[in-house]
Amino acid sequence: MVPQLAPPKIPEGERVDFDDIHRKRMEKDLLELQTLIDVHFEQRKKEEEELIGLKDRIEHRRSERAEIQRVRAEKEKDRQNRIAEERQRKEEEEAKRKADDDAKKKKVLSNMGANFGGFLAKAESRRGKRMTGREIKKKTLVDRRQPLAIDNMREDALKQRAQEMWNWIYQLESEKFDFMEHMKHQKYEIIVLLNRISHAQKFKKGHGKGKVGGRWK
User: Fold this and answer.
1) Where are the strands (E) in the chain, listed by range?
2) pLDDT band at 73 (very low <50, low <70, confident <90, very high)
3) Is the distance from CB of 207 to CB of 217 less than 8 angstroms?
4) Cα dihedral 57/60/65/69 (nearest 10)
Protein backbone atom coordinates (compact mmCIF):
# COMPACT_ATOMS: atom_id res chain seq x y z
CA MET A 1 0.00 0.00 0.00
CA VAL A 2 1.17 3.53 -0.77
CA PRO A 3 1.68 5.49 2.50
CA GLN A 4 -0.42 8.65 2.88
CA LEU A 5 1.89 11.61 3.44
CA ALA A 6 0.51 14.82 4.83
CA PRO A 7 1.42 18.01 2.96
CA PRO A 8 3.87 20.26 4.81
CA LYS A 9 2.40 23.05 6.85
CA ILE A 10 3.57 26.56 6.31
CA PRO A 11 4.07 28.32 9.63
CA GLU A 12 2.51 31.75 9.88
CA GLY A 13 4.77 34.77 10.00
CA GLU A 14 7.76 32.84 8.71
CA ARG A 15 9.47 32.88 5.35
CA VAL A 16 8.33 30.20 2.93
CA ASP A 17 11.10 27.91 1.66
CA PHE A 18 9.94 26.80 -1.73
CA ASP A 19 13.02 24.72 -2.29
CA ASP A 20 12.27 22.71 0.80
CA ILE A 21 8.67 22.25 -0.32
CA HIS A 22 9.79 21.12 -3.74
CA ARG A 23 12.35 18.76 -2.25
CA LYS A 24 9.80 17.25 0.08
CA ARG A 25 7.33 16.87 -2.79
CA MET A 26 9.98 15.14 -4.83
CA GLU A 27 10.80 12.85 -1.94
CA LYS A 28 7.13 12.11 -1.54
CA ASP A 29 6.71 11.36 -5.24
CA LEU A 30 9.86 9.27 -5.25
CA LEU A 31 8.67 7.36 -2.21
CA GLU A 32 5.28 6.72 -3.83
CA LEU A 33 6.96 5.64 -7.05
CA GLN A 34 9.29 3.32 -5.20
CA THR A 35 6.36 1.92 -3.25
CA LEU A 36 4.45 1.34 -6.50
CA ILE A 37 7.50 -0.31 -8.04
CA ASP A 38 7.91 -2.54 -5.02
CA VAL A 39 4.23 -3.43 -5.03
CA HIS A 40 4.42 -4.12 -8.76
CA PHE A 41 7.46 -6.35 -8.50
CA GLU A 42 6.01 -8.09 -5.44
CA GLN A 43 2.77 -8.73 -7.32
CA ARG A 44 4.70 -9.86 -10.39
CA LYS A 45 6.86 -12.13 -8.27
CA LYS A 46 3.74 -13.58 -6.68
CA GLU A 47 2.14 -14.09 -10.11
CA GLU A 48 5.32 -15.67 -11.44
CA GLU A 49 5.42 -17.99 -8.44
CA GLU A 50 1.77 -18.87 -9.00
CA LEU A 51 2.47 -19.41 -12.70
CA ILE A 52 5.44 -21.60 -11.88
CA GLY A 53 3.32 -23.49 -9.36
CA LEU A 54 0.57 -23.89 -11.97
CA LYS A 55 3.08 -25.13 -14.51
CA ASP A 56 4.47 -27.55 -11.96
CA ARG A 57 0.98 -28.81 -11.13
CA ILE A 58 0.16 -29.19 -14.83
CA GLU A 59 3.40 -31.03 -15.45
CA HIS A 60 2.82 -33.19 -12.40
CA ARG A 61 -0.69 -34.04 -13.56
CA ARG A 62 0.62 -34.72 -17.04
CA SER A 63 3.23 -37.02 -15.61
CA GLU A 64 0.60 -38.73 -13.47
CA ARG A 65 -1.68 -39.21 -16.49
CA ALA A 66 1.22 -40.53 -18.53
CA GLU A 67 2.11 -42.96 -15.74
CA ILE A 68 -1.52 -44.04 -15.40
CA GLN A 69 -1.75 -44.56 -19.15
CA ARG A 70 1.53 -46.48 -19.14
CA VAL A 71 0.29 -48.74 -16.33
CA ARG A 72 -3.04 -49.24 -18.07
CA ALA A 73 -1.26 -50.02 -21.34
CA GLU A 74 0.95 -52.58 -19.61
CA LYS A 75 -2.05 -54.15 -17.88
CA GLU A 76 -3.98 -54.25 -21.17
CA LYS A 77 -0.95 -55.77 -22.90
CA ASP A 78 -0.64 -58.38 -20.16
CA ARG A 79 -4.37 -59.10 -20.44
CA GLN A 80 -4.17 -59.48 -24.21
CA ASN A 81 -1.13 -61.74 -23.81
CA ARG A 82 -3.00 -63.89 -21.29
CA ILE A 83 -6.00 -64.07 -23.61
CA ALA A 84 -3.76 -65.03 -26.54
CA GLU A 85 -1.96 -67.65 -24.44
CA GLU A 86 -5.26 -69.05 -23.17
CA ARG A 87 -6.66 -69.13 -26.71
CA GLN A 88 -3.51 -70.87 -27.98
CA ARG A 89 -3.64 -73.36 -25.11
CA LYS A 90 -7.29 -74.17 -25.83
CA GLU A 91 -6.58 -74.51 -29.55
CA GLU A 92 -3.69 -76.86 -28.83
CA GLU A 93 -5.82 -78.89 -26.43
CA GLU A 94 -8.66 -79.00 -28.96
CA ALA A 95 -6.28 -80.03 -31.73
CA LYS A 96 -4.75 -82.72 -29.50
CA ARG A 97 -8.19 -83.95 -28.44
CA LYS A 98 -9.36 -84.02 -32.05
CA ALA A 99 -6.22 -85.88 -33.10
CA ASP A 100 -6.73 -88.40 -30.29
CA ASP A 101 -10.39 -88.84 -31.26
CA ASP A 102 -9.47 -89.29 -34.91
CA ALA A 103 -6.81 -91.84 -33.97
CA LYS A 104 -9.29 -93.73 -31.78
CA LYS A 105 -11.95 -93.67 -34.51
CA LYS A 106 -9.45 -94.89 -37.11
CA LYS A 107 -8.34 -97.66 -34.79
CA VAL A 108 -11.93 -98.69 -34.06
CA LEU A 109 -12.84 -98.68 -37.74
CA SER A 110 -9.72 -100.64 -38.63
CA ASN A 111 -10.45 -103.17 -35.90
CA MET A 112 -14.07 -103.40 -37.03
CA GLY A 113 -13.01 -104.12 -40.60
CA ALA A 114 -10.37 -106.63 -39.56
CA ASN A 115 -12.58 -108.35 -37.00
CA PHE A 116 -15.53 -108.57 -39.36
CA GLY A 117 -13.37 -110.06 -42.10
CA GLY A 118 -11.89 -112.53 -39.62
CA PHE A 119 -15.35 -113.40 -38.35
CA LEU A 120 -16.55 -114.25 -41.85
CA ALA A 121 -13.41 -116.24 -42.57
CA LYS A 122 -13.80 -118.28 -39.37
CA ALA A 123 -17.48 -118.84 -40.07
CA GLU A 124 -16.67 -120.13 -43.52
CA SER A 125 -13.91 -122.40 -42.21
CA ARG A 126 -16.30 -123.93 -39.65
CA ARG A 127 -18.81 -124.73 -42.33
CA GLY A 128 -16.40 -127.06 -44.04
CA LYS A 129 -15.39 -127.36 -47.64
CA ARG A 130 -18.92 -127.60 -48.99
CA MET A 131 -20.39 -124.13 -49.52
CA THR A 132 -23.62 -123.02 -51.04
CA GLY A 133 -23.81 -120.39 -53.74
CA ARG A 134 -24.65 -117.78 -51.14
CA GLU A 135 -21.58 -118.72 -49.08
CA ILE A 136 -19.38 -118.61 -52.13
CA LYS A 137 -20.70 -115.14 -52.89
CA LYS A 138 -19.94 -113.96 -49.35
CA LYS A 139 -16.44 -115.42 -49.53
CA THR A 140 -15.85 -113.64 -52.80
CA LEU A 141 -17.00 -110.37 -51.28
CA VAL A 142 -14.65 -110.86 -48.34
CA ASP A 143 -11.73 -111.66 -50.67
CA ARG A 144 -12.48 -108.58 -52.69
CA ARG A 145 -12.85 -106.34 -49.65
CA GLN A 146 -10.85 -103.15 -50.14
CA PRO A 147 -8.82 -101.46 -47.38
CA LEU A 148 -10.61 -98.79 -45.39
CA ALA A 149 -8.22 -96.01 -46.52
CA ILE A 150 -9.14 -93.70 -43.64
CA ASP A 151 -5.75 -92.17 -42.85
CA ASN A 152 -6.48 -88.85 -44.55
CA MET A 153 -10.20 -88.66 -43.80
CA ARG A 154 -11.75 -85.81 -41.85
CA GLU A 155 -14.05 -86.33 -38.90
CA ASP A 156 -17.27 -85.98 -40.92
CA ALA A 157 -15.96 -88.44 -43.56
CA LEU A 158 -15.01 -90.90 -40.81
CA LYS A 159 -18.48 -90.64 -39.33
CA GLN A 160 -20.01 -91.28 -42.73
CA ARG A 161 -17.72 -94.27 -43.33
CA ALA A 162 -18.57 -95.67 -39.89
CA GLN A 163 -22.29 -95.25 -40.65
CA GLU A 164 -21.83 -97.02 -44.00
CA MET A 165 -20.02 -99.90 -42.33
CA TRP A 166 -22.71 -100.09 -39.67
CA ASN A 167 -25.41 -100.21 -42.33
CA TRP A 168 -23.45 -102.87 -44.18
CA ILE A 169 -23.03 -105.00 -41.06
CA TYR A 170 -26.71 -104.53 -40.23
CA GLN A 171 -27.64 -105.68 -43.74
CA LEU A 172 -25.36 -108.72 -43.48
CA GLU A 173 -26.85 -109.64 -40.12
CA SER A 174 -30.34 -109.30 -41.61
CA GLU A 175 -29.36 -111.52 -44.53
CA LYS A 176 -27.83 -113.98 -42.11
CA PHE A 177 -31.03 -114.07 -40.07
CA ASP A 178 -33.12 -114.58 -43.22
CA PHE A 179 -30.73 -117.27 -44.37
CA MET A 180 -30.92 -119.12 -41.05
CA GLU A 181 -34.72 -118.90 -41.06
CA HIS A 182 -34.77 -120.21 -44.60
CA MET A 183 -32.52 -123.09 -43.58
CA LYS A 184 -34.81 -123.91 -40.66
CA HIS A 185 -37.82 -123.90 -42.98
CA GLN A 186 -36.05 -126.12 -45.48
CA LYS A 187 -34.96 -128.49 -42.69
CA TYR A 188 -38.54 -128.69 -41.45
CA GLU A 189 -39.80 -129.41 -44.96
CA ILE A 190 -37.16 -132.13 -45.38
CA ILE A 191 -38.16 -133.74 -42.08
CA VAL A 192 -41.84 -133.64 -43.07
CA LEU A 193 -41.02 -135.10 -46.47
CA LEU A 194 -38.90 -137.87 -44.93
CA ASN A 195 -41.73 -138.73 -42.53
CA ARG A 196 -44.17 -138.95 -45.42
CA ILE A 197 -41.81 -141.18 -47.39
CA SER A 198 -41.27 -143.42 -44.38
CA HIS A 199 -45.01 -143.62 -43.74
CA ALA A 200 -45.70 -144.44 -47.40
CA GLN A 201 -43.09 -147.18 -47.42
CA LYS A 202 -44.55 -148.75 -44.28
CA PHE A 203 -48.06 -148.57 -45.76
CA LYS A 204 -46.87 -150.21 -48.95
CA LYS A 205 -45.24 -153.07 -47.08
CA GLY A 206 -48.37 -153.69 -44.98
CA HIS A 207 -50.71 -153.75 -47.95
CA GLY A 208 -48.50 -155.37 -50.55
CA LYS A 209 -50.57 -158.69 -50.85
CA GLY A 210 -53.79 -158.73 -52.93
CA LYS A 211 -56.07 -161.28 -54.77
CA VAL A 212 -54.92 -162.43 -58.18
CA GLY A 213 -57.33 -164.85 -59.98
CA GLY A 214 -59.32 -165.49 -56.80
CA ARG A 215 -56.20 -166.31 -54.77
CA TRP A 216 -54.04 -164.30 -52.38
CA LYS A 217 -50.54 -163.76 -53.43
Assistant:
1) 211-212, 215-216
2) very high
3) no
4) 170
Helix (H, G, I), strand (E, B) or coil at 212: strand
Q: Closest Cα to residue 138, out of 114, 126, 162, 121?
A: 121
> Bridge partners of 211?
216
What values do phi and psi take at 212, rounded to 5? Answer: -130, 115
Q: What is the pLDDT of residue 91?
A: 92
Q: What is the distance between the alpha carbons of residues 13 and 25, in angstroms, rounded to a whole number?
A: 22
Q: What does the chain come to in residues?
A: 217
Q: pTM higher than 0.85 for the full model? A: no
| 3-state SS record for 23-62 | HHHHHHHHHHHHHHHHHHHHHHHHHHHHHHHHHHHHHHHH
- The mean predicted confidence, pLDDT, of the chain is 77
pLDDT at 92 over 60: yes
